[in-house]
Amino acid sequence: MQKSKFLNLVLALAVLVLTILLTTKENGSNKHKTTPAVKIENAQLAVLDSAWFPFNKKSLGVRKELYPQPALVIGTYDKEGKPNMMTAAWVGVCNSDPFSISVSMRPATYSYGNVMESKSFTVNIPSSKLAKYVDYVGRFSGKDVDKFKETGLTPVKGEFVNAPFVKEFPIVIECELTEYHDLGSHRQFIGKVIDVKADEAILDAEGHVNEKLLNPLIYAGGNYYETGRLIAKTGEALKDIDGEPFVANYSERYENETLEVIHNRKSVRHFTNRPVSKEQIETLLKAGMAAPTAVNRQPWVFYVVTKRETLDALSEQLPYAKMLSQTQVAIVVCGDMEKAGNLKDEGYWVHDCAAATENILLAAESIGLGAVWTASYPYDDRTKAVKKELNLPEKHIPLNVIPVGYPTGEDVPKNKWKAENVIWQ
Question: Does domain 266-405 have CATH number 3.40.109.10?
Answer without folding.
Answer: yes
